[in-house]
Structures are given as structure tokens and as C-alpha cells.
Specification:
Layout lengths: L2 H14 L20 H8 L3 H8 L8 H10 L4 H10 L16 H8 L6 E4 L5 E4 L1 H7 L12 H7 L12 H19 L4 H12 L1 H7 L11 E6 L3 E11 L6 E6 L5 H11 L1 H4 L11
Antiparallel strand pairs: 1-2, 1-5, 3-4, 4-5
Helix pairs in contact: 2-3, 2-4, 4-5, 7-12, 8-9, 9-10, 10-11
Length: 287
């Protein structure tokens, strides 16, 4: 770990950002170029004190998860991300489709959607970054580790994952997830991480194994969804996807019919995510 170079690089990237590009107010009293330290810390979901100590060359070595969060918060290019990892004393992540490095262009779009439920997901169903409104609607999906990072894996191994959808929709959701897993398996091959997740689910879940044996590839839940929220009830939403052909990431945006009850509920989530956020997800309390 090169503390000096790491501190200087973080500071330079922070000062290079334009607050308006991230949906933040410019403010007449802003005394520093770019973002404030507390703004970067909030975007990276780390404490302001810890980030400040990093810039002051006083922090311990950050974990790879923290470095990845900082790379996303600072909107680093792939080359800049790799440089940040090396300065922090870690190997840079492999560059391959389905990796975790969200493209700057996709992040810029997400920055404009801060009051709208939106999130970026990998080809393996891993949530890489969410807007505050998306966390309030679906729960914080970015804090899982191992295979549990995949929404498909969680659906068949963790009952809490099913709280997001009404019980009467569970069968359709399950079929949709398995169809997506089958396409990922076919795309990535038998020696891939997709295949590893599929084989583990076939071993652990009789439900998954039965659905896998059907060889269905249609995904009926991809556009229209019903989201079950503990405070707001059931929301009828449309889920639009924007795909990045290089990373195979999908930017999901949740909207509702204008003038509908669900549209009013989504507006409430966007206006005050903290007040209307989910209360059935233990990770929410840590935000």
C-alpha cells in the first residue's frame, strides 16, 4: 500500500468531479473544487472520518470492497480503478464481461436518477450499485458476499429474499430467475461462475432443480412487476432495462403508470427514501 500516492490520487479524483454530474447541488458556499469529503464518503457508503484519514495518509489498508466502492463513487474509468486497487496494495480485478466495474457512462445515467428506483446489476444477477430510492423500494442488495450476491441464489436459499414479491407471484418470479440462470449458463459455459451457482442451487434447492429440468427460457417477470413493500403495500411497476454490451451489466429503472397510486408511492420513496424505506431488511438500519 502506497499511502502517499493513494491519498493524492483520491484527492485529485475527488476534486475533478462536478457535483451537478452526480445530482448534487453546486451551492454558493462550496469552498473546494469537486466534491466534499463527506459527499464521497456517502456515495461510497463509508464513514467520513475513515475517508478523511485516507486522504490524510493516516488510515489502515482499505479492503477490496471499500476500494471498489470508492472507485464507483469517484466515477473512475477502468484504468483508474485498476490504479486505485494497486495503490491500495491489492491486485486489480480481472477485466471481463460480467465484472464489477460499472462503466462511467452508466454511472452518469444513474446519477440523474437519484429520486427514482434504479440499480445496476451484473450478468450474474448481482446488484452493483443502487439509488437511495431503489434501496428504499427493494432493500440494500449490495452488501451480500459469495454466491449470495446473486439474486437468483438468494431466491432459492433465503426466505427473506421472497419478501419483495407477493406470495401469489412467487412461482412466476422463480421461473423467471431460473430462465435467466439458464441463459447465463449457456453464455458463460460449464466452467464459469454461472455454472458454479447453478450446480450449487441444483444441490441445495429441490425447487430450483425441478424448474431447471424444464428448460424454460422465457422470463415473464422482466417488464411488469408487483413489489411488496412493508410500509407502502403492493406497488405495480414497470421495469425497463438498459444493457451495456461491453460489461453485460443492466441498468434497471422502476417506474409506474402516471397518475396511479403506485406512481404516488414511488414519488414518496424518491422524495424521502429514509422515511419510506423498507423495515424488513436488516441492512437498511446501517445506511
Amino acid at each position: 500500500m502506497d499511502q502517499g500516492q493513494l491519498a493524492d490520487f483520491l484527492r485529485s479524483r475527488r476534486e475533478a468531479l462536478v457535483p451537478a454530474d452526480l445530482g448534487l447541488p453546486a451551492g454558493q458556499r462550496r469552498r473546494t473544487a469537486g466534491l466534499r469529503r463527506e459527499e464521497v464518503a456517502a456515495l461510497a457508503t463509508i464513514s467520513t472520518d475513515y475517508y478523511t484519514r485516507m486522504e490524510q495518509r493516516r488510515a489502515p489498508q482499505p479492503s477490496t470492497d471499500v476500494v471498489a466502492s470508492l472507485a464507483r463513487a469517484l466515477r473512475l474509468s477502468t484504468d483508474e480503478r485498476d490504479h486505485l486497487f494497486r495503490l491500495a496494495g491489492h491486485n486489480a480485478p480481472a477485466r471481463s464481461p460480467g465484472g464489477e466495474s460499472v462503466s462511467p457512462a452508466t454511472l452518469r445515467i444513474l446519477d440523474r436518477l437519484q429520486d427514482t428506483p434504479a440499480q445496476v446489476m451484473s450478468a450474474l444477477g448481482e446488484t452493483l450499485v443502487q439509488t437511495p430510492a431503489a434501496r428504499a423500494l427493494l432493500g440494500d442488495e449490495t452488501g451480500y458476499r459469495g454466491m449470495a450476491r446473486s439474486v437468483v441464489y438468494r431466491w432459492f436459499t433465503d426466505d427473506a429474499a421472497r419478501l419483495v414479491y407477493p406470495v401469489e407471484d412467487h412461482a412466476v418470479v422463480g421461473r423467471s430467475f431460473v430462465a435467466g440462470a439458464r441463459m447465463a449458463y449457456a453464455r458463460d459455459g460449464a466452467d464459469s461462475r454461472s455454472a458454479e451457482i447453478v450446480e450449487e442451487l441444483r444441490r441445495r434447492s429441490a425447487e430450483f432443480a425441478e424448474l431447471w429440468g424444464r428448460h424454460d427460457v422465457d422470463q415473464p417477470m422482466e417488464l411488469h412487476k408487483r413489489i411488496c413493500h412493508p410500509k407502502l403495500g403492493v406497488l405495480e411497476v414497470q421495469c425497463q432495462s438498459l444493457y451495456d454490451p461491453l460489461t453485460l451489466h443492466a441498468l434497471l429503472v422502476f417506474t409506474a403508470e402516471p397518475g396511479s397510486v403506485s406512481a404516488a408511492k414511488l414519488a414518496a420513496l424518491g422524495a424521502d427514501p429514509a422515511a419510506h424505506g423498507r423495515t424488513d431488511d436488516p441492512r437498511i438500519t446501517a445506511l
